[in-house]
Design a protein that fits this description.
single chain, 49% helix
Length: 297
């Protein structure tokens, strides 16, 4: 009887310390990254590294598919592809949120799905970043309110720039919902291709939807004028500083500051005036519909 009890306690202890599917995924991901880094240090041919990268991504996609199960959001496919685009730190798309991306079409709506645990681990790693541009809060609710979260989590070659936050009714089945209007850009200034981005935290799932704004966000003359004036002033400053004794970086600082301020003033103008535009109720409805669909309402 004592031997049986000992065996039962041993098995129970082993189960308690068994790695979870998330642990297995993280271990496999980190090993793949380490292997690719080692191959780069050894000057391995890039073709060999790329092939290993693709093989590892396929393995991680299978692990996430088993972990997440099929997506059940109307209008979206049940199966997704890897959100992380590369395990090579030298590539664009490295370090994105661990999850799967489900798309309706190349330019249409998409959803990135992850678990709360994976998202929290990802945010924890970002919270220890030393560069301010990459540092994120470890708390999911705080992170979802920041442009830099979307830039790093679901973007690859451009930064997300928010225009305004939608005030939504939280679906009954959701624990948290954040909805934003913004766009992807590599430069300061107006973004006319705006996107509706909605994040829903529901139980153990974190879902982030992105869709082209419908209707398209209109141009608002008063806001365009703010940007035009700032752009003109920045260009003038840049021209005046050309040929000065300052080095190129120092000479461009005042112009860049003027562009950044103009960009912030333009977006503040849009956030103030867009809610009064006739197009706004439809944009708000689009965001609410996305939130309700992801929450399973």
């Amino acid at each position: 009887m004592r031997l049986v009890l000992t065996l039962l306690l041993t098995l129970a202890g082993s189960a308690a310390y068994a790695a979870s599917p998330e642990d297995d995924y993280i271990a496999a991901r980190d090993k793949a990254i380490a292997d690719i880094t080692a191959q780069q240090s050894a000057n391995t041919a890039i073709e060999t590294i790329d092939a290993q990268n693709e093989k590892a991504l396929a393995d991680l996609q299978q692990r996430l598919t088993a972990l997440l199960g099929p997506l059940s959001v109307k209008g979206f496919p049940a199966t997704g592809t890897m959100n992380v685009q590369s395990l090579n730190a030298s590539d664009i798309g490295y370090g994105m949120l661990d999850g799967l991306r489900y798309t309706q079409s190349d330019d249409g709506p998409s959803i990135v799905a992850s678990t709360r645990g994976l998202t929290e681990r990802w945010l924890k790693s970002k919270s220890s970043e030393t560069e301010a541009d990459f540092k994120l809060p470890a708390d999911i609710g705080s992170a979802l309110k920041l442009d830099s979260f979307y830039t790093q989590a679901i973007g690859s070659d451009a930064a997300f720039s928010g225009t305004l936050d939608f005030s939504l009714k939280k679906p009954d089945r959701a624990d948290m919902v954040v909805a934003r209007l913004g766009g992807w850009t590599q430069d300061a200034g107006p973004i006319y291709d705006q996107r509706v981005v909605v994040a829903v935290v529901k139980g153990d799932r974190v879902l982030i939807a992105e869709a082209p704004a419908s209707p398209a966000v209109p141009k608002i003359a008063a806001c365009d004028s703010i940007w035009a004036a700032a752009d003109a002033a920045a260009q003038k400053t840049q021209q005046e500083n050309q040929g000065s004794d300052q080095d190129d970086a120092s000479a461009s600082d005042p112009a860049n500051a003027a562009w950044e301020k103009g960009d912030a003033d333009y977006r503040a103008c849009m956030a103030e005036r867009l809610p009064g535009d006739p197009s706004f109720p439809a944009l708000l409805k689009q965001a609410q519909n996305l939130a309700d669909s992801m929450a399973g309402k």
